[in-house]
């Protein structure tokens, strides 16, 4: 039962765009995990650019840099 909590800088996505992202994420989870539509939950979190460092980078990304399977190409020190 995968749950995806996606954080990204605010883009003011429309409902159509949000649904397209959801459909694409579900397709990947179905392919690689054998998940069903009913087993997946997704949360889209729009974070203002000015808050990225304090809300996402420092508490979530930076402490786990050594175990991330894809590291960011930036550092916010």
From TrEMBL:
Its EC number is 5.3.2.-. Keywords: Isomerase. One of its GO terms (molecular function) is isomerase activity. This is Tautomerase PptA. The lineage of its organism: Bacteria, Pseudomonadati, Pseudomonadota, Gammaproteobacteria, Enterobacterales.
């Amino acid at each position: 039962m995968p749950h995806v909590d996606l954080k990204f800088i605010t883009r003011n996505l429309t409902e159509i765009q949000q649904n397209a992202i959801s459909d694409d994420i579900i397709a990947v989870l179905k392919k690689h995990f054998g998940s069903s539509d009913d087993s997946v939950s997704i949360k889209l979190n729009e974070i203002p650019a000015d808050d990225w460092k304090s809300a996402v980078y420092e508490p979530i990304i930076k402490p786990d840099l050594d175990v991330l399977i894809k590291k960011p190409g930036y550092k916010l020190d």
